[in-house]
Amino acid sequence: MGNNYGYLPLFETKSPGRPFLIKLYVLTIFVAVCMIWVYRVRYLPVEGVLERWTWIGMFFAELWFSIYWFITHLVRWNPICRCTFKDRLSQRFEKDLPRVDIFVCTADPEMEPPIMVINTVLSMMAYDYPPEKLSVYLSDDGVSELTFYAMLEASRFSKYWLPFCKQFSVEPRSPEAYFHNEPLDDHKLYGDMKNWIKVTSKQDQVSEEIRKEHKGFSEWDFVSSRHDHQAIVQILIDGRDPLAMDNEAQRLPSLVYLSREKRPRYPHNVKARAMNALFSCIRVSSRISNGPINMNVDCDMYSNDSNSIRDALCFFMDEEKGHEIG
Ligand SMILES: O=c1ccn([C@@H]2O[C@H](COP(=O)(O)OP(=O)(O)O[C@H]3O[C@H](CO)[C@@H](O)[C@H](O)[C@H]3O)[C@@H](O)[C@H]2O)c(=O)[nH]1
Ligand SMILES: [Mn+2]
Question: What biological-process terms (Gene Ontology) are attached (predicted)?
Answer without folding.
Answer: cell wall organization; cellulose biosynthetic process
